[in-house]
User: Fold this.
Amino acid sequence: MTVTFIQTADSIFYHDMIGETSKSVRNYCLRNGFRYECFLGIKRGTLPWHAAYNRQYILKEMVDRNITGWVFYLDSDAYIENIDFDLSDYLKDKGQFAGIFSGYVNNVPHWVNSGGFALNFSHTLGRRLATDYWSFVNNIPDEKYNKAKIWEKDIEDDQSMLNSLLNRYVEDEGIGYNFIFEREGDSVVNLGPFIWQHIRAHAPTFRDRVSNLTETVAQITKGREIAWPDDGPGYYFPTTHTSIKTSVGKKNPNGVRTTGKDGALLYGPYIQLREGDYCIRLFGKLLAEKDSSTSNFELSVTENSGGNLLHTSSHQDLRNNQGILAEAFFSISHECLDVEAVVRVNRETNLEIYAVQFLKIITGAENFGIRKTEKELPHKIW
Assistant:
C-alpha cells in the first residue's frame, strides 16, 4: 500500500507556515516509509490566494502520473499531531473506499473541511473525484479567474467546490457509500487524534498562528528531530529501487519485508565509494513486539561481488521500533566500485526496511586532520 502526503502553499505569505508544519509531516513520512511532496508557488493565477487551488491541480497531475494508493492532502496550517499513529493499521481494511473526509460540518455528513482529506487513487471513484474537483476550477474562464480580486467572493473557493462535488455524489448520484465521513474530533484525516489544523479562528492574527505552529511542532518533534551527518544525503536508496534485491523477503510499495524465511532480506545497490570513513543506516519498522528474536538480523557491507568484506555486525537491540533501525560504521582504504549492503534475517525476524543510506563521515575541521568518531555522530535522530 503506497501512502503519499502532499502539502502546498504560495511562496510569499504561507511559506513560513508550511516550513513549520512540514517538519512534522516529513518526519512522519520518513519514519513510516511514506512519500511526501510539497509545492511552493501558484499553479494557476498570480494572486497569493490562488494557491488555494493548487491542491486541485496537484491531484489531477497525480492522476495523470498514474499514482496509486492513498493520497493525504494537508493544508499549510495542518500538521501531524501524533507521530506514533499507526496509519497502515488504520488503512488496512479501507481499500473499498474512495476517500476519507472530516465531515459533519453543520451536522451534514458530506459537508467537509477541505484542509485535510485522503483519496484512494487505487479506487476508480477516488481518481474520478480528483479529476472532477480539478474541473471545478479549471473550467473557470481565464478572464473571470484573472479578474478575481477577493478570495471566497469573486470566484467559488476550494472548500465550496469540494462540498458541491460531494453533494452531487451523495444527493444526485447516490454513491456516497463509497466515502467515509468522520466527525471532527474523531477524524483521522483532519481535526482529530492524528492530524490537526490550526485554522484562522484559533489565533487572533496570522503571525500568532505561525508562532503557535512553530512552538507546537517543535514540541511534537522534540527528541525526534532528523539529524544528518556532515555529508548530507550521501547515497539514499529506497528498497523499492530496482538496484535493491531480495531473496527471502517480499517487496511492497513501502519497501521490503520479512516473510518468515532464513536468508538475505535485501542486497544491493552496488555503488562506487571512494576511500574514507562511512556510516550505513537502515530505515524501517519493527512489525512485532521488540525482542531479540523478532528484531534479530545481520548487516554486512561488501565489495567485489561479496568477495571482500568491509563490515559485518549483528543487530538485536534496535535503536528504535521505527525510523532508523540501525546504523554501523566502516572504513575503506581504496576506491570500491560495487559496494553492496546485505541484510540477513532468520525465520523469526519480523520487520520491514524502507531504505538504505551510505554517508561519508567528514567534519568542518578536516583540514586539521580531525574526523568524527562513532560517539561524536548525532544520535538524536527521531
Notes: The chain has a mean pLDDT of 90.
